[in-house]
Amino acid sequence: MSEAARLARVPAARIRRWIRGYSFPTLAGRHRSEPIVVPDIEPIANTMALSFLDLQEVVFVDAFLKTGVSWKTMRAAHHAAEQKLGQHPFSTGRFATDGRRILLDLTGDVAAADPAFQEILTNQLAFRRLILPYLVKLDFGKDGQAIRWWPSGKKRRIVVDPERSFGQPIVSREGVPTVVLARAFQAERSTPIVARWYGVSRQSVTDAVKFEAGLKAA
Predict the structure, then answer these.
(1) Fewer CB near the last or first residue (10 Å), C or N of the chain?
(2) Burial tier of 94 (Cβ tally within 10 Å: 0-12, 13-18, 19+)
(3) What is the pLDDT of residues 36-73, one digit of tens each?
(4) Gap between the Cα atoms of 204 and 218, Å rounded
């Protein structure tokens, strides 16, 4: 949970509410808010964990909320999308928002210049007005699901891949965890020395240090 919060830059307490649900008082009594993200992994010894796709759903939910999408719209859209796409619909890369509505890509092609979207709550056609920045940070498999995440963008060498290093952030070319390179740099304060020690390029060291510094700042 703590690692998921660190990578998604969403407080762990907030993620817990999203995956456990929560209750709150109203004039009519206590109201129960059900989970919006259902983890793939059952709790082990009361410790909760998220899969890679769970993490992407958290990132998507946070991004949608920041654009102004209401919780009511979010929940209705997620439920409708599950009926169309199955589990983890928000990690398929087929969604965008204009700040009020959540739109489902009818073409299935995230890279299309001007694809038609269907507003999944009303089934009215619209055209994509905004491609959220996180969509272009993901690689998708043939089934449309996210398979790799480039949290700093694809021009940087940082990748989160569930099939490499247990899903921890690594430099993509050499596979060394970013936290290892960042800690080594903190100790030596020399990019060339760290690069030589771990057999990586200087650019990989630089990207790793910047990435870890950004997480710490967040």
Answers:
(1) C
(2) buried
(3) 988 998 888 888 889 999 999 999 899 888 888 888 88
(4) 21
